[in-house]
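As a warm-up, study this chain.
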Amino acid sequence: MDSVHHDANPLFTAVSGPVRHLFQLLRCIAFATKAQVRITPEGIRFTVEESRVVQGVAFLEKSLFTSYNYAPPTSSQTDDTAVFQISLAALLETLQILLVNEIKDRWASRDPAYGGMMGALGRGGRPAAFGNRVLGMPGVCRLSYAAKGEPLCVVLEEGGVTTSCEMVTYEPEDQEEIPFQRDALTLKIIMRSTWLHDAVNELSSTSPSRLTMAASPSAPYLVLSSKGPLGSAAVEFSKDQQLLETFQVPKRTVNTYKYSLIKAATRAMSLASKVCIRGDEQGVLSLQFMIEVEDVGVHFIDFRFVPFLPEEGEDDLESDDEMS
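Now compare it with the structure written out below.
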């Protein structure tokens, strides 16, 4: 284990509340191994993308942390001081070290019988050596970033035991957001996220490569469909306000996306309480997931998808006739 770099005046330091909050939010965008990180006075922005056709953004607001301090240099050239790339897979694996014990103690506090194996009691009914309930100390995760080019330091403290990790930071890429025309929306739909999750999973039965979304001001109002080597499938949503909380579709619109990319957002779909589905005139799809974080408040995970554009002469998998 490498020794952790210490700086008298680090650029950034923070102490997390429950580690599961950080882990769950970051895992929602873990469809690629690396993430671009931007530290700001308001929180930490993690951006993941694949082939510039899908982007996922998780913004960890400072309210997720019990303490949060960002002190950039006073120099005028500091725009990229706290921007870097990191292995998201490695960060999640590190957080999981503390998360495992955190989950064990949560179960033990709810069910004393469960503590016989996973909580304050070890195997055979003996007290677990490092159980939080025995030591009376919750696990803590400390993050720090000393300066540009330095590693991101993650220190896990639990019951007097400290695990320190230095995570290599890489030069940031010239990463541009997938353009989304908020002033030229073709649809805006708000619904329970679990219903979108169930629909996307249902369509997987055909082993599809593409997913088509059709929205119309008249019935059928919203249809997700797919076609693959095992057949075709479609899920239709009615305009019932209990189903679609918001439904703004001025005219019929049909766009197709790579199914595997939409599937990459299913962790966020399953965790969120609501999703806002928006599309613009270019066909770019925006999925904004509202996630209620226990004892903290509401946080958002954003995805953007570039539509599939068939090459000239290529037949699309879905036709308008099938969706009418």
